[in-house]
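dumping this here so i dont lose it
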């Protein structure tokens, strides 16, 4: 009886079982050999890029190209906005709001960011001190009146003798400790300025006169803000008592209110600090202008020494950081638009966005969430560009991968 074997495709005699088994074994061996040959040939072909599959839908490739170009243009345009050129002189400077960004930082990295800011003359330790506001007693009023009479008498005597007026701050003023620190810091810088070699005696006298003028300007400004500073310190005192009250850290609603009050009181001192910094900048500009203009050509080292004397090391570091950030933003934009080193550009963009986002973490009550979520979306876009190697689509990374792609040896 003949049996049809579907495996071998031919009729076999039922008794001839040995022959059938032998034929099937030979056929299986041939199949295994052919599979091995196919695998061997596939390993000798050029390896395709790891991050690009054999075929992408056209709509996906177009979407990735548009996403890369849009993200790159945004970085490039924002970076170039930070370079400001003076039409009159042709000089350029970098204006990055890093100082404002760091000064408004909240959350776990607040201290780190604020440690990078230029000196504010220990305002946090000397000015931001909680103090209960109480109506002055009769004795305190008498002491204040006696000090004012004595101070006015000193001023009259100095005017008669044509001597510089000794400027003082009221002993009970809420800003006194901070003001004294500011003046001491200015005096230290003045000592460096007048010690510059080549500075004339007349210029040294002018430096002292400009210091006296800005000193008086500082005293007048802080005196005008005395009541507001007293009220602010009283709010700090109330906030401290609120934090120490029972249940302050147990009830979520109360804890949120405390965080909001903390943010409000923290921001209240910024206008005073900004105004003091403005007066200080004017003073430093006065000192920079001490040498006559002709010395700029004949003695350029004189201006360099004065600039070095008035320069704050943290300000210099911040300027360098601003330049580096600007170069990073523009570089990320250019690379993304060209589709060159797309993954490196995406990492650089993510680092920048993470730094900005970490100054205002959304889980902190006083954090500003105005820009957080759009920055988060842009980070997601950079993640997509990184994962897909989007520069290989209509970008220079396509040619780079073909030129520098690795080939496996057979």
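and the seq i came up w/
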């Amino acid at each position: 009886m003949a049996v049809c074997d579907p495996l071998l495709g031919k009729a076999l005699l039922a008794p001839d079982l040995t022959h059938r088994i032998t034929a099937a074994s030979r056929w299986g061996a041939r199949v295994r050999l052919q599979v091995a040959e196919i695998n061997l040939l596939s390993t000798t072909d050029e390896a395709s890029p790891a991050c690009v599959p054999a075929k992408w839908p056209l709509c996906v490739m177009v979407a990735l190209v548009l996403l890369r170009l849009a993200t790159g243009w945004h970085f490039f345009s924002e970076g170039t906005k930070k370079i400001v050129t003076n039409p009159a002189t042709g000089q350029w400077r970098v204006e990055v709001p890093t100082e404002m960004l760091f000064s408004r930082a909240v959350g776990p990295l607040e201290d780190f960011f604020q440690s990078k800011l230029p000196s504010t003359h220990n305002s946090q330790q000397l000015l931001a001190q909680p103090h209960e506001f109480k109506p002055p007693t009769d004795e305190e009023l008498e002491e204040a009146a006696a000090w004012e009479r004595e101070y006015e008498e000193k001023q009259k005597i100095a005017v008669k003798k044509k001597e510089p007026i000794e400027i003082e701050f009221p002993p009970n003023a809420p800003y006194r400790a901070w003001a004294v620190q500011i003046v001491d810091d200015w005096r230290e810088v003045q000592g460096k300025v007048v010690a510059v070699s080549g500075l004339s005696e007349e210029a040294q006298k002018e430096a002292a006169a400009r210091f006296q003028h800005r000193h008086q300007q500082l005293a007048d400004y802080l005196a005008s803000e005395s009541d507001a500073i007293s009220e602010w310190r009283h709010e700090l005192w109330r906030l401290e008592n609120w934090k120490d009250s029972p249940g302050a850290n147990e009830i979520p609603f109360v804890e949120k209110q405390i965080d909001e009050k903390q943010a409000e009181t923290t921001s209240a001192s910024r206008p005073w600090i900004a105004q003091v910094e403005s007066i200080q900048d004017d003073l430093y500009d006065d000192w920079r202008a001490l040498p006559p203009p002709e010395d700029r050509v004949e003695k350029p080292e004189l201006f360099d020494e004065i600039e070095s004397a008035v320069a704050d090391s943290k300000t210099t570091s911040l300027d360098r950081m601003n330049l580096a950030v600007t170069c990073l933003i523009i570089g990320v934009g250019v690379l993304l638009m060209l589709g060159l080193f797309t993954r490196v550009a995406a990492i650089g963009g993510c680092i920048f966005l993470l730094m900005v986002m970490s100054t205002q973490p959304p889980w902190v009550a006083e954090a500003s969430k105005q820009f957080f979520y759009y920055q988060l979306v842009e980070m997601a876009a950079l993640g997509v560009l990184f994962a897909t190697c989007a520069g290989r689509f209509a970008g220079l990374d396509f040619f780079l991968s073909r030129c520098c792609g690795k080939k496996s040896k057979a």
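DSSP finds 17 helices and four strands in the chain.
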